[in-house]
Amino acid sequence: MLKTMLKPFFKRFLGLFFSMVFVSMLSVALLCCFGSSIVNTKNHYINYVNEYQDMDELVSTQFVRRENLDCLDELTDVIDKYDSRLTVDCYLKRPNRTLVARVFSYDDDPDSEFKNQIFKRYVLESTPYVTKAKNAQGEEVNIAANVSVCRKFAKNNNFKLGDVIQLGFLNMYANFHIAEIVETPEGIYPRANNYIWSDNHDFGYIYASEVELSKGLQSLGRAIEKRINEDDDFKEYYEKAIAVTGITIPDITEVLIDDHFVSHWSNQVLVKNKEGVKLDNAVDRITARLEKKGMEVKGTTVRTYMPHIAYMDRALAQVQIAAVFLPVFFYTVAMIVVGLFINQIIKAMTPQIGIFVSIGVGKWDIIK
User: Fold this and answer.
1) pLDDT for residue 1
2) Are strands 164-169 and 203-209 parallel, antiparallel or unpaired?
């Protein structure tokens, strides 16, 4: 029966048969691929965050001296490790455009007492810019201020290694050279504030070592000081901007008298908790400790609400939905194809089946 009936049928409906096999195999392959992709993506992202920026809380404060943060060392039952850094929002001047950049400091000196424990950057491209000049002691030093630009911000605005960018505030700017294109977890999805979730090409993150940012701020401070001394209108504008609008920028006087201003001041703390410590409890303890020492806490963000963590959670959730929907869709198509295939078999064999039934052949014998 197989040779006389099924063989001619397979020849006739060979394309349908192969379609059924292909769709079935494709649905199984998609299910396996999506499942493994989700697991691999989650593992890679978790490992990336743990290696480059594994923090549980981000605490924003007023400008404070670094040594005042030593009070956090007393919270040994809560804090595993922490970093402090200076953060400044600057205008970034471009031809026919003005962007906004959040500049973060980091400590790249391995012998420093404030060496970064949590923050690290993944360098994609690097070419330091060097301009030699003699300082007051007659020593040759590099006076060029180098910065690192996040890959996404660089891509959106066509920044390249070696480009000169102008960063500043109060309509005064200092030149910085792009020495690195980097990637950081928080740079995956930068946000200007807690109320903007959209992908903004005009806002991005820039990183500068404490030495480089100090050089840039000193240059900017000298320019602002000179403008204040020469222009009474600008002096009035400067005083009003600081007093009325409350712009959070470094004190120019402090910047000019301190060659290492950035390494001595901070307004942001990155905290990694001890294992098992609840986020809310850690925030309360840290905030209470800082305020007890006279430091104003302007805001706190716990891990689950950090923009880059929330963004990746949403992206992974969409992948999970696709991982469930697409295999189910292809399985459904496979079942429809299988149903059509079986229906064609029954239709093609209806006369023979009728003859077998009429002479008393049983169902199982017909199937055999």
Assistant:
1) 47
2) unpaired
Burial code (b: 16+ CB inside 10 Å, e: under 16) for 216-255 equals bbbbbbebbbebbeeeeebeeebeeeeeeeeeebbebeeb
Distances (CA, A) of 79 to 106, 112, 224: 20, 20, 40
Report the alpha-carbon distance of residue 363 to residue 368 in Å, rounded: 9
According to DSSP, the β-strands at 265-273 and 57-65 are antiparallel
Residues near 239 by Cβ (< 8 Å), separated by ≥ 6? none
Phi/psi at 164 (5° precision): -95, 125
What is the amino acid identity at position 215? K
Residue 366 structure tokens: 């017909």
Residues 6+ apart with CB under 8 A from 289: 71, 72, 74, 75
Contact, 299 vs 87, CB < 8 A?
no
User: Rounded to whole angstroms, how far apart are CA atoms 139 and 131?
Assistant: 13
Give backbone dihedrals phi and psi of 4, rounded to 5 degrees, phi first.
Answer: -80, -30
Q: What is the DSSP string of 79-133?
A: EEEEEEE-EEEEEEEETTEEEEEEEEEE---TT-TT--SS---EEEEE-----EE
Query: Each residue of 302-344: pLDDT tens digit?
Result: 988 888 888 878 877 777 777 677 767 777 777 777 777 777 7
Asked if 216 and 167 touch (Cβ cutoff 8 Å), the reply is yes
Amino acid identity of residue 161, one-letter, is: L
| pTM summary value | 0.76
Instruction: Report H helices in the chain.
Output: 7-12, 14-52, 151-157, 210-230, 232-243, 252-257, 261-264, 279-292, 307-358, 363-367
What one-letter code names the amino acid at 144?
Answer: A
Determine the Cα–Cα distance for residues 60 and 79; give it in Å rounded to an integer.
16
CA distance 228 to 69: 33
Give the span between the Cα atoms of 353 and 346, in whole angstroms: 9
What are the structure tokens assigned to 316, written together? 């992974």
pLDDT at 104: 93
pLDDT on residue 138: 60
Distance CA 286, CA 303 (A): 15
pLDDT at 313: 80
